[in-house]
Known about the structure:
411 residues; alpha+beta; Vanillyl-alcohol Oxidase, Chain A, domain 3
Amino acid sequence: MIDHIPQRSDLTQRYLYSHDIASPPIISKFFKLADVVMQPENEDDVLRILLYAKEKKIPLIARGSATSGYGGAVPYKGGIVVDFSRMDHFEVDEERKILIAEPGAVWWDIERKLNKLGLSLRVYPTSAPSSTVGGWIGQNGYGVGSLAFGSIAENVEKIRVANFEGIVETRDLRFYAGLHGTTGFVVKAWIKVKDYEDLNAYAFHVDVEEAIKIAYARKHYSALYLTRRYLEMKNMVSGNEIPEKDTLVIVTAEKLDGDEELGEEIWNDRFYPLRIRRAGPGVVAAEVLIDAEKLKAYLNSVEGFGAGTEVWFLKNSLCSVLSFMPVDERDGRSVFKYTFSLKALKEAKKLGGRVYSTGLYFSKESKSFYENFDELLRFKKSIDPENLLNPGKVFPSGSLPIIMGFLEVLS
């Protein structure tokens, strides 16, 4: 029934498909390896995999490019990793300005095609050169363009989802977006796009309070704030010589009185976090969502840990804050520095903030993260009573949430 579906079962491939971009060393030893990797080529293949897993009671884990660091694509309890890379077809309804994409379509491939048609994405992740449609919807991420257009879920018209009950096509994303495939796998999405426009990027050397005023003064497309420490790390890794001062970059169709040359240089390197995560001797990342009015206090906290930070300003005075702290793995005490993400989250929660995403590592935060968590849990149990769809993610289970809670207390 599933023999025709491309599969990978050798030890090396199973190992590679059992990690994401983070895989924290303190807790990754609790993970199991994938039993097998399957690569469906169409919707029927996905349904066959679901039927097989249900009959055999085998966990299923959806995977795009695993560019997130929240464990959503990690086979925590083993099972079948469903790699959607072969389902990468997409097309554009130019008249309605709608992108129709399979889950494995890569965002930057889409953007290049849209630009040729005089269109562009409204929002896309900072991992756009490799991340996929299904993965970002599964996380309900924010990114480039979210100042004007919000999260990816706010830009999706409808989706098709495969689960143990078959195919569901819906405009109601509450039970799917941001749930990491725990309630079904997105097999197609209808996403709003916009007319292409020439955007200019302007840099301003300002403190965070002034940056907030400028970012929200008018309706700009994007606003990015980089701390001095972040730019020091960026220059060290990239060899660039960007002025190491707190810097705001505004991307807009308007003409502003800022440094356009510097703004364009920083903006053209906006996918930089993908590289800094891999910088040696090592870095630890922490990502939170926090209200703009509390941003200054939060930045003061993480800078006290020695972290450099980038801030994406979002709709409704919300900020996505990504901080990096260097770790020298040759230092025997470095294992304690890996709790930086937990320390940063504690500081954010004191200020009314929350983790950027739950996934596996922060499933213990789900009850406060999702306003309708009890409703989601009832839905999960109704369509997946055996807990086979990406177990351990979003809905806490096993020992890991207890371990993470213990580490947070100690951090």
